[in-house]
Amino acid sequence: MGQIIQYITSYLGSNQTPGAAGNMFWALVYIMLVFVGLSIAVIAMNWLERKILAHMQVRLGPMRVGPHGLLQPIADAIKLLLKEDIMPAEADGLIFWTAPFVVVLAAFTVFVVVPFGPTHAITDMNIGILFMLGVSSLSVLGIVMAGWASNSHYPLIGALRSSAQMVSYEVAMGLAVVSAILMTSLNAEGTGTLSMIGIVQAQLAQGEWFIFKFFPLGLIAFFIFAVAMVAETNRAPFDLAEAESELTAGFHTEYSGFRWSLFFLAEYSAMIAVSSIAVTLWLGGWLRPFPNLLHNSTWDLGFSLFPGVTFLLLAAMCFYNAARMPKHPLFRIQTIGLAGFGAVLGLIGLVLFYPPVSGRIQDIFWFSAKVAGFMYLYIWYRGTFPRYRFDQLMRMGWKVLLPLGLGVLILTASVALLQQTLWHP
Amino acid sequence: MTDSNSSLSNLDLETPEKPFLDSNELVINMGPQHPATHGVLRVILRLDGEKVLGLECVIGYLHRGVEKIGEHRTYTMFNPYVDRMDYVAAVSNGLGYCETVEKLLNVEAPPRAQHVRVILTELNRIASHQLWLGTHALDIGAITPLFYTFRDREEILKIYEKYCGARLTTHAFRIGGLQYETYAGFEKDVKNFLAFFRPKIDEYEELLTTNRIWVERTKNVGAISAQDCIALGVTGPVLRASGVKWDLRKAKPYANYKNFDFDIPTGENGDTYDRYLVRMAEMRQSVRIIQQAVDALPEGPIMAKVPKVMKPPAGEVYHSIEAPKGELGYFIVSDASTQPYRVRVRPPSFVNLQALDVMCRGQLVADVIAVIGTLDIVLGEVDR
What we know:
The complex is a heterodimer. Chain A is mainly alpha-helical. Chain A has helices spanning about 1-10, 20, 25-55, 70-80, 95-110, 130-135, 140-150, 155-185, 195-205, 215-230, 245, 255-280, 295-305, 305-325, 330-355, 355-385, 390-425. In chain A, about 70% of the residues lie in helices and about 0% in strands. The relative contact order of chain A is 0.12. Chain B is α+β, with helices and mostly antiparallel strands. Chain B has two domains: about 1-55, no CATH class; about 65-385, Cytochrome-c3 Hydrogenase, chain B (Orthogonal Bundle). The longest helix of chain B is centred in the N-terminal third of the chain and has 30 residues, at about 110-140. Chain B starts with a helix and ends with a helix. The interface between A and B is medium-sized, with 28 and 31 residues.
């Protein structure tokens, strides 16, 4: 018994990821946490996208299910789960059945190496970024399988489009990633790293986020990645694979109910996954703003208040809107519900002020905040841009982003080499 | 059969071997249930990969026999039916019909009625173009303009609702003039709308006109030459975007358009982008016309003297107006009874739709959607 408890607690003092510490118990706990957190994030994202998009388009968005439509994603999930599971008669059953799982598997597996903090990752692989890129590109397999197995024209065209698109944008994406990885090697030993945690630590050691490194080279590489990642996840303005007005729904036209919701889940978790790659590589991962410049106990304390304050602000928003609810018996439950939700958020906020908790949670907060910024960008794009045409998309991938990526890579390498030989011989 | 075939094929040396990867044409059926065919248009596409080799429109899914109905209704009774053809420009349809019957009866609506007709028709042109802009942008993937245009179209519909009680199929005009006098505050409402709407056109243009993706998606897409337009009978903004300065409001003035000062915007290349620009400019011109009409709204009667039971003299008449989508013509044959002997409608959407094949050949699938959007068809009018 004592041994078991000792095994469980042995990890807590260490400053490694559970995978690296070899502690299976905590690794499993982290897997659970990531899985649950991701599911909640997808649910929240579903609601947020509809709300934000609605407000951009002078409408209200979901307002009926729960206060301000807060329970809408849950209602949607129940609806999807209860729907009849339809498989077209001419479909290739096994592949049709497997495709959504391949996509979801690929989208979820990448989170094994996503560093939410120096210790908050399931494991720290020394080929982390390679693993992420490799596994996330597996999802194209699922999409091709879905399009092929549906045995229908629209899904087939959608699958062809998305596979071509994902493959071609991966090249540009890879070049941008390589130029960021090059920057990690600018230390005394001159050894770079592919580990996701190592990349962030390199940014901490070099005292700047890679987006500002060798200005504007880092920025251009980031820009290439930011464009390619939208194309990679098949989102507007590159959502040709599921171009609603052209191909009805693209590769998942024939899917319904739970299987369709798996594609939905995979799409959103893929968005979070690529955003976390971008955050890790260019935006300093879990690092708070100015970790080196504003480094004393006052600033540390100030920045450690951010998570709690954010939650308190969200709680205040809930209370404010609960107070603005119509004073009518019909709205009583909604008002109480909204105030209750605000109370829960406020309670979380208060807990986050407790120093031991805030110390451990800070990294996760900054990482999530940066990813959330990308999520907002995704929604903003969707509300603003028309859709690219397939040939224009391909032209942009191969004729603009790829040469640009190559140029940035060569320039970054040259500048890095010069810096290492001239200033640090 | 398969046995004999296989034994024969062994002997027949000239039979080409079926390639491992055959590249057949892909025939895709777009519609009638499709989000971007603006109703129930069915387009059969012949594709080579993404390239369109040819297409064929199948129409008739919304056929209601409006023309035949006309033969069994009196002239007055048929008036509301025409609103159901182009239901986004119902007022224009009504204007065309009323003016045709007036021509047949040889009466003319009084000046005040003419002015109100012009105001309502031009408001309707704006509303129709707004709906076109929203759905066209939606087809190309920009989802936000739709909500902006619908927000502003609402103001026009409110004016209609206050004027005649209906918002969409208004039945606003009567043969010989108007049934209703304008409500108190009509002029103020219209002027307020114009002041409200002028900056809104800039807002739409800000979203799209210089948007790189929008320009790439519409420039040189679905281009059609002026000759092709004329040969196919294409009218309206599509024709004007190809560079032909043909607008029935100027060419054959009806109502009292000759009293108003406005320009005919034209394009050069006849592509989707030019058609977009032409329609945007037309909205500005409509605002100009309405401003003039509402500033000079005369007093007086709103109804000409028309008999309660209309029995036009035997004969036939063709009259056409510039509807938002093009030339809308009515051909009515009278046999001196209370009902028309024959009603024939020349709907702009139906005629413009036949240019789809010419415009889409050699383009990509995504362009077909853009071209269907830019033709601005309403299936209620195509099928009637």
